[in-house]
Design brief:
140 residues, alpha/beta, TIM Barrel, binds flavin mononucleotide
């Protein structure tokens, strides 16, 4: 299986799960044979405003690398800015944009599944994230 120019080890992936797929869990799943593992959803606003806790969620161990970082947010410029920073990390396979989280505290901020109510906003976010993730388009 190819995802863009990225070729995972096999086609069994660990799905992103907030509060579950932390580094320790991801390493265990990778060691049990997962082809690719995803981080929990990471707040683009948290990263932008320098939250250490959010920064910590981006830490990828060499035993699980390369891993996928899932980001969420509603501001296309902030999502793009963070995508640029994340894509510069050598241990990131690619970036995934969360558009499915239904939790009220996420949806009320126009994040996660809220984006399905505003396709134009979702489109702006995808465009910006792709535009700013150019380094991920190079073969790693
Ligand atoms: C506790 C929990 C947290 C989740 N967090 C996320 C998340 O952060 N991002 C996401 O895209 N999906 C999240 N999901 C959805 C899962 O990634 C997955 O898509 C969902 O469980 C359906 O997969 P399944 O059919 O294999 O159960 C979460 C699911 C659970 C149960």
């Amino acid at each position: 299986m190819n995802i863009g120019n990225f070729v995972p080890e096999n086609n069994v992936f660990l799905a992103p799960m907030a509060g579950v797929t932390d580094k320790a869990f991801r390493i265990i799943c990778k060691e049990f044979g997962a082809g690719l593992v995803y981080t929990e959803m990471v707040s683009s606003k948290g990263l932008y405003y320098g939250s250490q806790r959010t920064e910590f969620m981006l830490d990828i161990d060499e035993r699980e690398a390369p891993a996928v970082v899932q980001i969420f947010g509603s501001d296309a410029d902030i999502m793009g800015y963070m995508a640029e920073k994340i894509s510069e990390k050598e241990d990131v396979a690619f970036i995934d944009i969360n558009m499915g989280c239904p939790a009220p505290k996420i949806v009320k901020n126009k994040e996660g599944s809220y984006l399905m109510r505003e396709p134009e906003l979702a489109k702006r976010i995808v465009k910006k994230v792709v535009e700013k993730s150019k380094s991920l388009l190079l073969v790693k």
